[in-house]
Specification:
It contains 16 helices and nine strands. It has 358 residues and is of the alpha/beta class. The strands form two sheets. It has a six-stranded mixed beta sheet, with helices on both faces. 46% of the residues lie in helices and 11% in strands. It folds into two domains: 3-222, 2-enoyl-CoA Hydratase, Chain A, domain 1; 233-353, no CATH class. It comes from Embleya scabrispora. It catalyses: 3-hydroxy-2-methylpropanoyl-CoA + H2O = 3-hydroxy-2-methylpropanoate + CoA + H(+). Residues 28-347 form the Enoyl-CoA hydratase/isomerase domain. One of its GO terms (biological process) is L-valine catabolic process. Keywords: Hydrolase.
């Protein structure tokens, strides 16, 4: 990497590093800088990213924007769910404000007037997908692990995730949302979450070239075919099983398909929050019919504001992240106990608290 492509030296409190590189500082670079937390997003980080994007949008000397993550583990593991859980126990006000600004940032990225480049190396989950997959040039590597893992913590895919997954080929997005499954580079590209595969050892050369060249041309020049994924060979049973409009029917089809991988998927899904599963499926189906990302983010904000008041989000984070016993006690505990009215309540309008993007 050339000297002027090196990131600035951070102080301990710099959770987002902002600088400009290349000739005349033509490339604005954002570096998420919480490597011990795999760069998990908190509210001040979201505000800092937004401020940088707003500044560069007005600056004609900035030609493009790049986002990367500090450390070797990944771009971003998502939102700071420990903090969200702690706030949920106190009523959820801060979580609602965080999500409002985060979803507005996701919309800002999708509509950004200059090329927005994301290096999706390593772990890219939840909120990490939100700050990358809505961009123009999305780079994955052999180390990329991309997922929307929300159902595993009693939550529902957000940050525009239901928009992206609902538009993946066939029912691949439904499979990924309900299982909370992680995918590699090839599958991320085939699902529409990424554009180019670049081996990780070529990233320094790619970053140098981005500092001086057109992002789309540079990415295409450094890219190569990704190693084979797994979803293509499973597409037939995924499309057949997940086309059902009830989680119970999806599970029945998976178990009856005769495919070992389908049976494994059913077992994974059955361990998730029953409420989160039913709301997630409803959100995906509604997102598929929505006219815009903004309308889907509006919907996701309603769902998130409802979820923060339910017991499953607090319990899911406890089981997976706080106590790590991996034994969540969901409430309600079964799919049969989650009725249509329970699901519909998650989509209730928020009145003057609406996000208002759609």
């Amino acid at each position: 990497m050339t000297p002027h492509a090196q990131p600035p030296q951070p102080s301990p409190e710099d959770t987002v590093l902002v600088d400009r590189i290349g000739p005349a500082g033509r490339l604005g670079r954002i570096t998420l800088n919480r490597p011990r937390a795999i760069n998990a997003l908190d509210h001040p980080m979201v505000r800092r990213i937004t401020a940088a994007l707003d500044e560069w949008a007005r600056d004609d000397s900035v030609a493009a924007v790049l986002i990367t993550g500090a450390g070797e583990r990944g771009l971003c593991a998502g939102g700071d769910i420990r903090a969200i859980r702690a706030d949920a126990l106190e009523g959820g006000h801060a979580a609602r404000e965080f999500w409002r600004d985060e979803y507005l940032l996701n919309a800002r990225i999708a509509a950004y007037p200059k090329p927005y480049v994301a290096i999706m190396d390593g772990v890219v989950m939840g909120g990490g997908v939100g700050v990358s997959a809505h961009g123009d040039v999305r780079i994955v590597t052999e180390r990329s692990t991309v997922a929307m893992p929300e159902t595993g913590i009693g939550f529902v895919p957000d940050v525009g995730g239901t928009y992206l997954l609902s538009r993946a080929p066939g029912e691949l997005g439904t499979h990924l949302a309900l299982t909370a499954g992680a995918i590699g580079a090839a599958d991320a590209i085939s699902c529409g979450l990424a554009d180019h595969f670049v081996p990780s050892d070529r990233l320094p050369a790619l970053l140098d070239a981005l500092a001086a060249g057109d992002p789309a041309e540079v990415a295409a020049r450094h890219a190569e075919p990704a190693p084979a994924g797994v979803l293509a060979e499973r597409r037939a049973w995924i499309d057949a099983c997940y086309a059902a409009d009830a989680v119970e029917e999806i599970l029945d089809r998976l178990l009856d398909s005769g495919e070992p991988a389908a049976k494994e998927a059913a077992e994974v899904i059955a361990a998730k929050s029953p409420t989160a599963l039913k709301v997630t499926l409803a959100a995906l189906r509604r997102a598929r019919r929505a006219a815009s990302l903004g309308a889907v983010l509006d919907q996701e904000y309603r769902v998130s504001c409802a979820a923060v008041t339910t017991p499953d989000l607090v319990e899911g984070v406890r089981a997976q992240v706080v106590d790590k016993d991996r034994r969540p006690r969901w409430s309600p505990a079964t799919l049969a106990e989650v009725g249509a009215a329970d699901v519909e309540a998650f989509f209730a309008p928020l009145g003057e608290r609406e996000l208002g993007l759609g």
